[in-house]
Design brief:
CATH topology: TIM Barrel
CATH class: Alpha Beta
Strand order of the largest sheet: 1-2-3-4-5-6-7-10
Order of helices and strands: EHEHEHEHEHEHHEEEHEH
């Protein structure tokens, strides 16, 4: 059973987001565990989080959380400590809600250093966040959307960062299809080769979720602009999505939409279309 879902607001609480997913007939969803524009540590409602966990267990719904926008694994100086504490808080909330993990973007290139310094800072930050973490929720590193040669756009980088961390078992991955297309990691026509490489590197064995997004711009332009999967002007074609979605290496993953809701199709409608088109009634 393919686990289609979408990003949902927690304005009605964690339980409210889970109930909204159920009303959409979704088997997965994503949410911001707190204010998406702040790194502040949230004192969350433990009863609400527990109710969310129990509701999802009862209805076989799985979820992931997503870090706030200011989160950066290559943050320096004072911001680095704020990112560490915020990520610890995100993991605690995700664990309380029963989520598989917390999606965090691969770090960006440091202005004051090159790729090696950027990788080192990422590893330091990940180690600090995961030190002493005993929960089952993982940090899920997401691939970047830069042009070819940008940091965080290859499976080799993603898997190597994980291997070099002190707690690799607490780290997994989230594949964003728009980012992969924008960076030419996935050209739309090389999925078989990408799946084979990912298995050899151990990437898909640790993948927990897919951000299922079309791309408004042609392949390889490095632009992170999402489009709807079907009935859109996106550059990823329907048959290319079909090959990816039906790939054996992704059958365990959550497929979470981060597509526009103001382009004539709602997330609820899009989930229904995806189920119909890709084999679920």
């Amino acid at each position: 059973m393919l686990k289609f879902g979408c990003h949902l607001s927690i304005k009605e609480g964690y339980l409210g987001a889970a109930k909204r997913a159920y009303s959409y007939k979704a088997l997965s969803y994503q949410y911001f565990p707190k204010n998406p524009r702040s790194l502040s540590v949230k004192s969350y409602d433990h009863e609400d989080a527990e109710a969310c966990r129990n509701f999802c267990l009862e209805h076989a719904i799985e979820s992931i959380a997503h870090t706030p926008y200011p989160t950066s694994l290559t943050a320096e100086r004072d911001k680095k400590e704020a990112v560490i504490q915020s990520l610890k808080n995100d993991l605690e909330i995700a664990e309380a809600c029963g989520s598989l993990g917390v999606v965090v973007h691969f770090g960006s290139l440091l202005h004051s250093g090159g790729q090696i310094d950027s990788y080192k800072l990422m590893i330091e930050t990940l180690n600090a966040v995961l030190e002493g973490w005993m929960g089952s929720s993982r940090l899920l590193i997401e691939n970047n959307a830069g042009v070819i040669g940008s940091i965080g756009t290859t499976l080799e980088e993603l898997t190597q960062i994980r291997k070099l961390c002190e707690r690799p078992e607490k780290i997994g991955f989230c594949l964003d299809t728009c980012h992969a297309f924008a960076s030419a990691l996935w050209t739309g026509d090389n999925w078989a080769d990408l799946a084979e490489k990912g298995e050899k590197l151990g990437y898909f064995q640790e993948l927990k979720a897919v951000h299922l997004n079309n791309c408004k711009y042609p392949m390889g332009e490095g632009k992170d602009r999402h489009a709807n999967i079907l009935h859109s002007s996106g550059h990823i074609k329907e048959h290319q999505f079909e090959e990816l979605i039906h790939s054996p290496v992704l059958q365990h993953a959550l497929f979470v939409l981060e597509t526009p809701k103001d382009m004539g199709v709602t997330h609820q409608e899009e989930i229904k279309e995806l189920k119909k088109r890709f084999g679920q009634s």
